[in-house]
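Reposting from the mailing list since nobody answered there.

I have sequence plus structure tokens for a pair of proteins and want to know whether others read the tokens the same way I do. The first protein:
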Amino acid sequence: MAEPKYRRILLKLGGESLAGEGAFGIDPQAAEAVAREVERVRRHGIEIAIVIGGGNVWRGQSHVAAGMDRAQADFMGMLATVINALALQDAMERQGTFTRVMTAIEMRDVAEPYIRRRAIRHMEKGRVVIFAAGTGNPYFTTDSAAALRAVEVNAQVLIKATKVDGVYDADPKKHPNAERLMHLSYMDALNLELGFMDSTALSLCMDNRMPIIVLNLWESGSVERAVMGETIGTLVSNGK
């Protein structure tokens, strides 16, 4: 059997990955599908951390546009990610995957507080760790939280799993002739403003040489193929 290319990964999931066919809420079948994809990877002995968004529960930016205080909306979004983390934990543990949820905002009755060394120890013991509540600070996206946690736990790659099979030079929904980019440098990703990840997250990955792979979560086995070293999706790293 081939050896994995990466032994420790940070998987970034959008909240919509738990929504199924609907735009909002949590679909238990969708959560189970995500859990199965994660378990396929874990069986290779790969240590996994996950950061999940909250857009299926709360879309703070739309409320900010309507006049809501940005910090208040962001804190509500952080709580939405905790809801999603608990739902994903439930789906994973029902299939026998040992999982821990750690939150940047302390709420000991439902999850462990985030402690870097403890998180690493959980991963070393084969537990999947789900990081919730973003960075614990307003004005930072869950992409930034994913970049931060990936660096903190010494992940070898940040995998952003979306509904699209990579990064395109234009929106493929609006431009049928858009081309998928197989590789991007960090600077090109920042300068082209392609919108797949915010500039704070990209800059943090660039400063710490954290490679990013953008791929389609719903392409069965895509995350597994990426960690085994197959060329899939779009790689963002140094150079060309």
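The second protein, same order (residues first, tokens after):
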Amino acid sequence: MSEKAPVGVVGVGWVGLVTAACFAELGHRVVARDIVPEKVEALSRGEVTFHEAGLAELLQRNGERLTFTTEMPELLDSARLLFVCVDTPPTYSGDADLSRVRAVVDDLRGSKSEHVLVMKSTVPAGTGATIRRDLPGLAYVSCPEFLKEGTAVKDFMHPDRVVIGAEPSDTAAGDLVEDLYRPLGGELVRTDIASAEMIKLASNAFLATKISFINEIANVCEEVGADVGEVAQGMGLDKRIGPAFLRAGIGYGGSCFPKDVSSLKMLAGNTGYHFQLLNSVIEVNELQKRRVVGKLQKHLGSLVGKKVALLGLAFKADTDDMREASSLVLAARLQGEGAEVVGYDPVATEPARDLLQSVELAESAIDALEGADAAVLVTEWDEFAEIDWAEAAGRMANPLLIDGRNFLEPEKLREAGFTYEGIGRAAGARASPPPR
């Protein structure tokens, strides 16, 4: 496959668009297909419909190499490698919804044997084997994505590893995928398909487990007077543990961790194995969000009629993604306790509007804090560190702040007149380092 050979991408959501734009940046011609005409038209004009750092610039810079279409025949005529990047959201049972993947498989029935289907969508182990039986003439490669929202372009261009799963009969197809990724310099991991599928699920489940573990430690720290920031730092210096994902807060969210943890739990359950650890990981994550309500009640008593400002609505900074965002749980729980809720986010206001219809959405952090009885920092946006907190204290009815990400300097807040409480933090604690 030559350096300038065309690459096909099926589905131009977050993963698909990053994949298409980054391959174009590497010099490949890319044809990307989606079934939503409005999305295709917007992308053809160079308009990105969601927030991801650096992505709009890639589209502008590589417009001549990128073609967007709604037509599968156009994609099949143009590209040999077909990267499938469609959503696999959780069903009501917790299993992965593979309906979009199956729709792609149906579209590919009868396609040329020269095509290679490369699965980037997160699917349960065993999916590849099923697809290979359904498409016997097509080579199949599993190549799971390991991108983080907010740093997806950087993650793609500088991967820790690239996992390529292919059976012996499809070794040549695996080699083609490896050739595409080799210039990026990440370690290339060649394995069978089922193992590649499990690597993705196991990786995210382990990271989610680290988050729930450090949150449990934070809760114990509050009881014994220890500081979770100091504890996490001391733990992370052990090379067997490492510092990443040891940052206490109000739990994980987004499109990957909740879905993949649930999917792995259900995958195990469907085989008859009870994955008890993941049950606890999920339970801890849900309870952690609700602990914030208890902290507010400790200071305010009843929340009936109290105004609470949520600073940050997206599930993490540097994205506008509201999927499984902690703000959704907090808003609903606070309103259930009778509180009035106002929220602010630098980029996620519009995505949040339909999901938080009974929440007032402010145009700035200061506006959100005006007259509030308490504030909860939900998302660690950099701009929140730059707020004039003395002014904010003067604007609030009661200057109380619950720092759900241990992001702010406690002493700075206290000097500004705030009653400050973080997650598992002792008096005199320092701000936690940015997440890795």
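Reply #1 (J.P.):
I read it the same way you do. The CA atoms of residues 386 and 399 lie 17 Å apart.
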